[in-house]
Structures are given as structure tokens and as C-alpha cells.
């Protein structure tokens, strides 16, 4: 379950019409998504694990009793699912297959788990080219190999022409938690530092530019990548890490807003320190978008106690997936539940959650 | 991974054009599905677990080493996924939500595992009525409660109008295997008896009749139901059970053909002993369909050594989900890989796998 906020803290009333029909914004990863999840899914299905709204569920299996038990001595597994509906299917830097593997691997990795097994369910549209499907499957295999996970089960359904869109892929992953490790979006504490593992907005702006047919001197490329080797190295070096999240749909702003709400803290950011590629910056300006809201598929946000921040940053910068890591802000006791950014020109602004739908079908 | 046969044994060549575009038949659960899986998915992604083509993957987790190991002493889990694209969403006896929970619960149950946890990923079409989504979610909650499983994680994506069809749901399940139990589609032995847990074709003919607007004096109803309580009772009473499968897409004929192929045995059926409701029989006649190929969503096939057959049948008949259980045939050493049925009028006929697409979007 990705990117969900506690809506008790939302203040602006949502017009009734938004609850009558599904809107594109309900898939944004922002405010409308969170609202749908809270009002439709959690209202009915809420339980201790689902309602915790972590990126992956933590489950315990007790081999002695054959019964589920959330607090016992058996292995604790991480369990997460995501559907992928990205358009176009193939884009600079990746494709829907890579994204489907990386997305699920990363949800397990940022939970602090070791990703082990994936399932993949395909919904194919009648008439879709088998050759394209083959390219996607090859890409998934390569992504699984790189991430060190095994695809162990799957399903294929076909819908009639015009009732789907070529291919949708749902991947579900199982990972294993190390004993005694507890990462949670509820763990951030005032004084903690916030690090992003690299440049932001690369994936979302690549998809947007591809769709809009915009070209730049330096080609934009999706950052889609597995993060489990980076997270392993980070957790080995710095066991004090409080939270990790991958800022996918809804971007860094939505992830940090969820964090501020769930941990009941404020977040202060320094815009000048946030790494953004020049070409992403240009594309954002051209399309009137803010990179803080744009999806990433190979980046993570990590919250760490101040005394361990520099050593963690050093470790991250030595890893190929963390070369451009930077401290972008800190957790504060002020303005609980809010993200406030000191802008490039010196003023302060509140960075809210993504309100509507900026980039449909970005992942 | 449901309903797949080893295509080494298929003899008729498939025209090349079938590999160029996805056809509705690729989702039938029959021959074309198996072919797509073999040539596109297994060719690239094949590994020991995936290639075993069981309804669910069996995985071992070793809490000591934090590494996957398929043959160790840690708990063995069952893992399975299915997408649901049934049309219409609501039908007599159930809806897509119930089906999505039952389908995944049953894949775990027939593997001999205790279903514990589910994930659910929704692909919503822009414009879909939220009230319908709410009805589906309520139905899923009721189905989870009845089956004793917990929905612990999920995802929601939205696609633009005309690029989906109201809602598709992918459920993935985790179950726990009892120590030392090994059910497998490879386990059938000559002399074993084959039992079906009740009437066949109810789900598929309900969907078809609803679509075609056909009405009968006695209303048809889908048999969608969780089978995990029945399988628990069966396995407790009869540990010698060799194989269990739920004959969903592709029907009883496809399941038995897979079994004959995977176990390298022949299967002899007696048509007179196969339970079919009168109204299903009428609907099949009217639409020119054979109930042997029609999907079931609350039935199972079990293969059991002859000496335990009657005691198992008695136990099954005492359970509400097995009241109409019947012995329908036996495993033989002859005609390896083939299913042969003695028909009502006394002749013998070969019952092949579903070749094309009989009932698109049946689950």
C-alpha cells in the first residue's frame, strides 16, 4: 500500500461529487488517492496491519502452531503489491516490466526487508503484440536477476479489445525481515535528518516528455532501478535508520507529507539542497510542473538521527545508486503534520500533498 | 499459476499467427493459455518453482540465514496470484470481489496450505461508480471473514476512460504448509480414484446466462465459495490425498488433462457419475456448451488412493461444500496423458483440453 495519509488531519472538505465516480486523481498517489483508500477501503477492510499504511505489510509466521501471530519468534516476512499501468509501455531507461519488478522490490527494500520472491499477474488486451510481451518478459527477467529475486508464480488474463490497454502487470513480493529491525513511517523524531538518495523527478519527467514529444539536448531517462543493494549497505552501516520510503507516485512532497502526518512531526526542507537534473528542471518549467510532485522509481528518502547522518551519507555516496545523495532537510517539533520549504529565493512555503492528478499512468 | 499443461505432449502444431497477437483464447485456461505460458513466460522466466506449474508456489524461508532455501527446516509457505476480470461484475451468487478472494484462497487450499494473508490490487477505470466499488469491497471483507484470511496490503491505480473496464482486481495470497505434506499435480498413480466435490459448471453457466439474458425456472447461481474449511477437514481425515485442484477456467476437462500430463498417467471417467444440475445441463444444451469445459469457483477435484476413497467421500459429503461429492473416475496406466470418458450412451470419447475460447472473462 503506497502513499497514504491519515485523513483525520485533512482540513479542506472534499466535494461530494468526488465520491460518486472514480477520477484520474484517485490514482495520483496524492490527496485523492489517500481519501479513496481511507473512505472506501479502510472503512471496510481496516485491520491492524492494513491500517498501518506502511509500503509493505509485516507478517509473522509461526511454524510451530501453524497460526498467524504478529508478535512471535518465527520469521517476519514483508508482503507488498502494486499494479503497473504506465503509458507508454517502453520509455527511455526502462519499460513496464522493469518498473513492475523494481517497484515491488523497492517497496520491500525500503521496509528494511530482503526481497526474495515475486508473483506477476498480466492482464492482456486482445490484439496486443506477442513480440512486445516477449520484450517485457525478457526485461522482467533481467530486472529479477539484477535484484536477486525469483519470480515464482503468475497468472494471465485476456480482456476484449478496447477493454484494457495492451498490458497491465501486477507484481506482489515477499521479503524477509532481519530480526529486531523496525522501520516505520511513524518513527521520525525531531532533530532527525532527511536524505534523498539522488536526483528527483527523472522518471516522471521522462514519461511526460515522451508522451508530449519534447526533446532535450541531453536525453531524459527514467531512474527505474532496484534499491535493495543500496538499502542493505545502508542498514548494515547504520542500524539507527528510522524510516525509508521510495517517493514514487505523488513524488517527494507526498512522501514527506505522509511522514509528517504519520510521525506527528514537522518537516523543514531547503530547496537549494534538493538535487534536480538540469534537463528535469527545464522539462518541469516547460510543462509547469514542480519536481517535488513528480514520480521517482529508483530513489529513496531516509530519515536518520543527526549523529549518524554524515556517516550514512558517505556510505550512500559510495554506492552507484546513491552517488548524488544529499541532506535535504530535517525533522522538527514545529508545524506538526506539515512540510515547510525554504525556497531558492529565501522565502518559506508550505509543500502540500499532491491535490489532483498531475501525471496519470506514470507507473 | 493456474491450469497449465506440459506442452511437450501436445501434438497438433499451432499456426504461427497465434503467436503474433494476443487472442481471447490465450486467457481461456485451456490449450492456448498453456501455450502462451510455455513459449513466452517459461521460456524466459522458467525456474524450478515456476516451471512446476502448481496452482501455488511452495517457498521455504529460513529465519537463521536470511536466505531462500527450498529444502530446509523453516516454515514452508504457499504463494499464489490471480487477476479477476469477470464480466458482469455482479452476478447471481457473487461478484468480482467474492471471486477474487475465493479464487486465491482456493488456490492455497487445494495446495494443502492454510490460507492466511491476502493482498488486493485494483485497476479502476475513470468514471467507475464509487458505490459499486464500495459494494465490491464489502463483499471482499465478508469473503475474507468467512475464509478466515486477512487482507493486509493493497494498491489502487486508475486508468483513463475506455482503457479499462470498470474494475480489475488482482489478489495474491500467502498460506502456510503443514510440515511434511506434499500435494502435487505430479502425484497421481494408477489405481487412484478421482472425486469431484459437487456439481460442475454452475459458475460459468451463471455468467453466460446472465450475459445472454437467458432465464430458467430455477435460477442459476455461481458456486463461488471458499474451499479451505473443506480441504482442512479432508486432509485431517485422509492424509493420503495425492492431489487437489480447483477446476476454474477451462473446467474439469482442462484440470484433468493437466493432471494426466503432469503425472504421466491416463484418466478414465464415467459421464453418468459426474454431477451436473438440471438447469446447468439445460443452459449448456441451449448454448451448445459442454459442462466439462465450464468454469467452477467453489469445487475441487481430489485424487486419492483407492483404499481411502470411500472414507474420504463420506467425510466430504458431511461438509456443506461437499454434499454432492461423487467419484467420477479413476487413474489408469493406459492412454498416458489422455482423459477418456465412457459416455451416457455407452461409447468412449477422448476429452481434450479446451482448445479455443469458450467463455471469455469468466473470472
Automatic annotation (TrEMBL), chains A, B:
**Domain PurM-like C-terminal: residue ranges:** 189-337
From the UniProt record, list the coiled-coil ranges.
none
Family matches, as Pfam families: AIRS, AIRS_C
The chain positions of domain PurM-like N-terminal read: 73-176
Listed CDD domains? HypE
The family annotation for this protein states: Belongs to the HypE family.
Under which name does UniProt file this protein? Hydrogenase expression/formation protein HypE
The source organism is Novipirellula rosea
Gene of this entry: hypE
